[in-house]
Amino acid sequence: MRVQVQEAAFDFGSELSAFSESRENIGAVVGFLGLVRDDTGNLEALEIEHYPGMCDSAIAAMLEQARGRWDLADALVIHRHGRLAVGAPIMMVATAARHRVAAFEAAEFLMDYLKSRAPFWKKEVSRDGASWVAAKDADEDALARWQG
């Protein structure tokens, strides 16, 4: 299980390839890449802030929750911070398990938790100024399916 919170760009293909190399007794690897999306046609960049150490620990706890719920062989989360241009890779999740259902569900669980609970603060920078991104009901709804 590995967590990386970094400013530097990463290569999704290389990371996923390294994650899945030399695996035994697994039948599935699931990888997800999140990109900075411009829903308005006006976004110039996304600025992401975090508390070093606290953020890594919170994500590591999410990985442990996933490991406790599904029979995972391994999991990886990479999340960037700093100023990111539209289209830039912002995060990735990879899971490895004996069976595909566990790998897919654990990856979805981690993505939902990262979106709603990871201690990142996002600011959208547009031609008109900058504003902090508020929590979305849809993200909370997605997270709710894993609770209870």
What does this structure look like?
The chain is of the alpha+beta class. Helices cover 34% and strands 36% of the residues. The chain contains four helices and eight strands, in the order βαββαβββαββα.
The helix/strand class is: alpha+beta
Separation of the first and last Cα atoms: 25 Å
Integer-rounded radius of gyration? 16 Å
The major beta sheet can be summarized as: 4 strands, mixed
Strand order of the largest sheet: 1-4-6-2
CATH top level label = Alpha Beta
**Residues in helices, as a percent range:** 25-40%
CATH homologous superfamily caption: Molybdopterin biosynthesis MoaE subunit
The H-and-E topology, N to C, reads as: EHEEHEEEHEEH
Query: So how many helices?
Result: 4
Q: Report mean pLDDT, rounded to a whole number.
A: 93
Q: What overall form do the CA principal axes indicate? A: globular
Summed up, the domain count is 1
Q: How are the SSEs placed, and which strands pair?
A:
Blueprint: E1 2-6, H1 12-20, E2 28-35, E3 43-50, H2 54-69, E4 72-80, E5 82-85, E6 89-97, H3 100-117, E7 120-126, E8 129-132, H4 137-144
Parallel strand pairs: 1-4
Antiparallel strand pairs: 2-6, 3-5, 3-7, 4-6, 7-8
Helix pairs in contact: 2-3, 3-4
Main features:
single chain, Aldehyde Oxidoreductase, domain 3, about 150 residues, 4-stranded antiparallel β-sheet, alpha+beta, 8 strands, 4-stranded mixed β-sheet, 4 helices
Short summary of the structure?
This protein has helices at residues 12-20, 54-69, 100-117, 137-144; strands at residues 2-6, 28-35, 43-50, 72-80, 82-85, 89-97, 120-126, 129-132. β7 and β8 form a beta hairpin.
